[in-house]
């Protein structure tokens, strides 16, 4: 039996649905709460349905979890992907009902992968990571303001005193958050964390962030998927015979992870033998230092996935052809 595809456009208070019934598109609106979920579940009844919705901030999570626990198939897709899908079909209208129809069409055409809720501790780590990222941005912005004020040559004691107090508070909160995250990550992924720390060049912060964003390295089956998610894979810009743009990394990903990997790459190029050999070979071939370091960061990411998946210790001069 063919499953009925249900498109769901969700917002803070309500969600709109669209599905095909005997060739006609039906729509409806429900409250984004427990009562609305139950009413929507009754509409679905015992039908073989698969719901498709966007990852709209935190609003999709309660409904997606309800559907999953009710045995209804559900897919949570990237809003940018759905936007491009809509543009390719020249869909000009932008309403909640039309968005639900677009999601229904996307689900029927693309058949996106099924979604399942993350463990509770992963959600906790993700929330702590989001808060940590916000604090880090605030600290950087405040440090820049303090530097600009000092460089202006116009002393302002009240400004400096207040800024220093806030910076001290932020530093304390950042340290506390990092300790809480590391304790929670080690509680569930002690072996993966230790494996990552055995890789020369990778430190505690990078090991922790990689564990969080990969859900303990359970979200990705290949290094190619992980590199694409982080945004450290190359993006080729060529067309015909005249357009030959420079290849750059695709930055549609995790900026924080890329920043940490780049810092790790500078150290790995000195102490991690495979990374060092790669770095020196690229420089010898005339590649700029920045590109060579990005290549090292990419190799570190591949090492991290392989080591964490196998839960083994990094071996500096490992050879797959060595027999013992």
Description:
- The protein has 324 residues and is of the alpha/beta class.
- It has 3 domains: 4-110, Nucleotidyltransferase, domain 5 (2-Layer Sandwich), CATH 3.30.420; 120-189; 213-310, no CATH class.
- The protein is 58% helix and 13% strand.
- The chain contains 11 helices and 9 strands.
- It has helices at residues 34-44, 60-69, 79-88, 96-110, 120-151, 157-197, 204-213, 223-230, 255-271, 273-284, 289-310; strands spanning 4-10, 14-21, 24-31, 49-54, 73-77, 234-235, 238-239, 243-244, 248-249.
- The strands form 3 sheets. Strands 3-2-1-4-5 form a 5-stranded mixed β-sheet.
- β7 and β8 (243-244) form a beta hairpin.
- α6 (157-197) packs across α7, α9 (255-271) crosses α10 and α10 runs antiparallel to α11.
- The longest helix is centred in the middle third of the chain and has 41 residues, at 157-197.
- The relative contact order is 0.08.
What features would you highlight for this structure?
disordered C terminus, 13% strand, 58% helix, five-stranded mixed β-sheet, globular, 324 residues, Nucleotidyltransferase, domain 5, 11 helices, alpha/beta, two-stranded antiparallel sheet
Which shape, going by the Cα principal axes? globular
Number of domains: 3
The percent of residues in helical segments reads 55-70%
Distance between the termini: 55 Å
Order of helices and strands: EEEHEHEHHHHHHEEEEHHH
Largest sheet: 5 strands, mixed
- Tally of strands: 9
Mean pLDDT: 86
Give Rg in angstroms: 24 Å
CATH class of the largest domain: Alpha Beta
Widest sheet, order of strands: 3-2-1-4-5
The CATH topology of the largest domain comes to: Nucleotidyltransferase, domain 5
Number of helices: 11
Q: Which homologous superfamily in CATH is the superfamily of the largest domain?
A: ATPase, nucleotide binding domain
Low-confidence stretches: 235-245, 319-324
* Oligomeric state as shown: single chain
CATH architecture of the largest domain: 2-Layer Sandwich
Strand content: 5-15%
What is the SS-derived class? Answer: alpha/beta
């Amino acid at each position: 039996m063919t499953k009925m595809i249900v498109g769901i456009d969700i917002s803070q208070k309500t969600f709109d649905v669209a599905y095909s019934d005997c060739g006609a598109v039906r729509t409806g609106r429900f409250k984004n709460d427990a009562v609305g979920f139950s009413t929507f579940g009754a509409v679905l009844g015992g039908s073989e349905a698969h719901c498709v919705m966007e990852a709209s901030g935190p609003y999709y999570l309660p409904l997606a979890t309800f559907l999953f626990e009710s045995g209804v198939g559900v897919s949570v897709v990237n809003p940018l992907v759905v936007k491009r899908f809509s543009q390719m079909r020249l869909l000009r209208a932008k309403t909640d009902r039309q968005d639900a129809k677009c999601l229904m069409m996307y689900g029927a055409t693309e058949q996106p992968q099924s979604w399942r809720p993350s463990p509770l501790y992963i959600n906790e780590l993700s929330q702590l990571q989001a808060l940590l990222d916000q604090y880090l941005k605030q600290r950087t912005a405040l440090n820049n303001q303090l530097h600009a004020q000092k460089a202006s040559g116009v002393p302002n004691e009240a400004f400096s005193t207040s800024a220093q107090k806030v910076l001290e508070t932020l530093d304390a909160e950042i340290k506390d958050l990092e300790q809480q995250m590391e304790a929670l990550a080690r509680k569930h992924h002690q072996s993966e964390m230790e494996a990552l720390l055995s890789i020369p060049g990778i430190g505690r912060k990078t090991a922790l962030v990689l564990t969080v964003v990969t859900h303990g390295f359970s979200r990705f089956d290949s290094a190619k998927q992980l590199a694409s998610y982080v945004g450290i894979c190359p993006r080729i810009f060529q067309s015909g015979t005249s357009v030959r743009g420079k290849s750059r990394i695709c930055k549609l990903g995790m900026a924080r992870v890329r920043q940490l990997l780049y810092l790790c790459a500078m150290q790995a190029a000195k102490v991690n033998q495979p990374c060092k050999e790669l770095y020196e070979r690229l420089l010898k071939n005339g590649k700029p230092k920045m590109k060579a370091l990005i290549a090292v960061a990419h190799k570190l990411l591949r090492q991290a996935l392989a080591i964490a998946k196998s839960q083994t210790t990094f071996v500096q001069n490992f050879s797959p052809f060595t027999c013992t």
